[in-house]
Fold this protein.
Amino acid sequence: MIISMRLHAPKHEIDAVCDRIREFNYKIHAIEGEERVVIGAVGVGDVTACLESLEAMPGVEKAVRISAPYKFVSREFRPTRTEIVVRNAVIGGPDFVVMAGPCSVESEQQILESAEIVASAGAKLLRGGAFKPRTSPYDFQGLEVEGLKLLDKARRATGLGIITEVMSDRDVDLVAEYADILQIGARNMQNFALLKTLGKCGRPVLLKRGMSSTVRELLMSAEYVVAHGNAQVILCERGIRTFETVTRNTCDIAAVAALNELTHLPVILDPSHATGKRSLVPALSRAAVAIGADGLLVEMHPHPEKAVSDGAQSLTPDQFRAMMRDLEPYIDLWKRARMTEAVAAV
Ligand code: PEP
Ligand code: MN
């Protein structure tokens, strides 16, 4: 249920509403807004009776049931976009945010060089895996803590924010010490122990869609993180597994538009894992801008031919710079659309 209070409702009216919600055995989950307070309540009970009772109380403007199983991430709960502030960037706001870098952190030189390249081309965050989820146990597994320290060094050198993957609930505190955004990989989208721990990590989380997961399952996973205390979740479409073999995964571009209807959370596209081929990355990136994604997560390697992981889908520095330049006119249109939307919302 969502209970919207009248503008400037006094505290005693808000408290009385909260008490009544608890009397009906619902739990207060969130109280948002300063001038206009919105109360979110969850649980199992007599919804109709509770709503009727609340609507009759002083200070209550509207009490409605949220029909979606994902409640706090739904557009019903919050009609306006959630903006997530990360160092020098706002994701879900008036700017299209690009996060770029190699698949894995490999060495100090590699990550520092990557950081310089992506920063000077206009990216706001540096990506790079220190903990790598690899299909084979014999493949490179990541530099782990050493990799996190190198990312920190790259952040200091460039001012970029850092996004890096965390694979286990045991490592959340450690990764949160270094990262500005914690990335949850496709293979962990439904690792519920991890999702619950992220609720308390105090950092924004970028949740990638599982390769066989539906859009609703992605939203339910986001709901886990939010329900456990962390409202700062960014969703990422990275392609799903289908019968198609020309691309590594099948990019479900429509999922971006669908998510924008269903949730207030920011949605970004990873064109690198979605295709597996660097030649296809610029076209999909344009599609991401056109469809209204909030940003991109792109792989770029200073020397893709030497990359220890995902070299084939990593852009070269020149290709990355060219792509960023070519995206500019599309991003200008994107900004105009965002501005129009913001004006309409007032
Ligand atoms: C990655 O970002 O390098 C990665 C492993 O992505 P995904 O979890 O989408 O496969
Ligand atoms: Mn990768």
About this structure: Residues 103, 273, 299, 309-310 surround manganese (II) ion (ligand 2) (CB under 6 Å).
